[in-house]
Amino acid sequence: MSPRELDGANAGGQFVRTALALSVLTDEPIRLENVRGDRPTPGLRHQHLAVLETMAEICDADVSGAELGAETVAFDPGIEGDGGLEGGEYAVDIGTAGSATLLCNAVLPLVTVLESPLSVTITGGTDVAWSPPLDYLRRVKLPLLRRVGLAAACEAERRGFYPEGGGEVTLRLEPSALEPIGLGERGSLEALRLYSTESASLADRDVAHRQAKGALERLDSDAPELADRNETTADSPSPGSALVLRIDHGTGIAGFSALGERGKPAERVGEDAADAANRFLEGTAPVDRHMADQLLVFLALAGGRVRIPAVTDHVDTRCDLLEAFGAEIDLEDDGATTLVSVSSLLDGIQ
User: Fold this and answer.
1) Distance CA 91, CA 76 (A)
2) Is residue 118 located within the same domain as residue 161?
3) Which of 119, 186, 281, 339 is 20 to 30 A from 65 in CA distance terms?
4) What is the DSSP-derived secondary structure letter of residue 125?
5) Which DSSP letter does residue 245 get?
6) Is 153 annotated as contributing to ligand binding?
7) What CATH number is given to the structural domain containing 117?
8) What is the pLDDT of residue 350?
9) 45 and 128 fall within a common domain
10) pLDDT classification of 1: cutoffs 50, 70, 90
11) The domain containing residue 349 runs over which residues?
12) 249 a known binding residue?
């Protein structure tokens, strides 16, 4: 089979991760040109290479271009027979503070073709810039996807902040059949949950508590009642902190996060997450802007629809990629939100 030609000239790492997952799911070889072409330093970085090598190992793929800086990658999944994928236990060390959660996101869709349990233990950054913090993955995304049948859990042995990384998480997946996703409307607000984490080196400054205090004082009065306040001191090779707010409503879950930075008051970290939550509360979409693009692959697998707060560049890029693999996508913009409906790819994968 000739590989599907894909051009990443106007995309970043998300394009690479999603393309690899779709290649495995459809058992279709791909050739990626201009990898991360719109980034200041194009080509594969450590975390993208780790995703490529992990996906290749899981499905015994034939790969070329698996090296740092590569701007052309060929990937031919090694799935045989009826398209099922054997599970197993794998370990990957990103080698930097590259994002462990982004690697988890790349592997998650494979649940739909697994024939046996799969676990991947990842060493790298768990709470780093330009990626979902660990508690967003564990407390927001996975609980939302479990509602439609995804069987997955993520365990953390150690947190990894920038610049050392060194965190360790294990993603465990069970074979799963997803139900259609129905997130066309937001339900009534039900509960607020807060997860604030500090490295042990920051405990004497009460960073986790101050982050939480800043968030709660900044939230609008129409936020739902606080149901869980979790402040954690975690082992980590680097000093760092993170805060995640979760809002549960009648039809789904939304999440909002912020990371600590050198010179940034802990209270401000909480305020930043609260500001994002307040913007969500002012709107009507059932998911936050980051979940909007992360759900698209699962929509293509199970079918369904989701109302999103905005069509971001990430949403645009992922829609284009899904359509390249045969998904049918419809966007209905009402001026305040966009209803995204996805169908057709599931039959091809099953």
Assistant:
1) 21
2) yes
3) 119
4) B
5) E
6) no
7) 3.65.10.20
8) 46
9) no
10) confident
11) 180-185+284-350
12) no
Mean pLDDT over the full length of the chain = 95
- Cβ proximity of 92 and 50 under 8 Å: yes
Residue 291 known to bind ligand: yes
The tally of domains found in the chain comes to 4
Cβ-proximal residues to 67 (8 Å cutoff; 6+ apart), any chain: 44, 49
Q: Which of 46, 48, 209, 314 is catalytic?
A: 314
Instruction: For residue 248, say whether it is annotated as part of any ligand binding site.
Output: no
Q: Are residues 95 and 17 in the same domain?
A: no
This prediction's pTM:
0.96
CA atoms of 55 and 278, how far apart (whole Å): 38
End position of a domain, from candidates 155, 178, 201: 178
**Alpha helix positions (H), the chain:** 13-26, 46-59, 100-107, 134-136, 142-146, 207-218, 266-282, 289-294, 296-302, 313-324, 345-349
Overall residue count recorded for the chain in this entry: 350
Instruction: Give the DSSP per-residue string, 7-69.
Output: E-TT--HHHHHHHHHHHHHHT--EEEESTTTTSSS-S--HHHHHHHHHHHHHHT-EEE--STT
314 is catalytic: yes
292 is in an annotated binding site: yes
**pLDDT tens across 225-273, in order?**
999 999 999 999 999 999 999 999 999 999 999 999 999 999 999 999 9
Kindly state the tokens that stand for 128. 């780093």
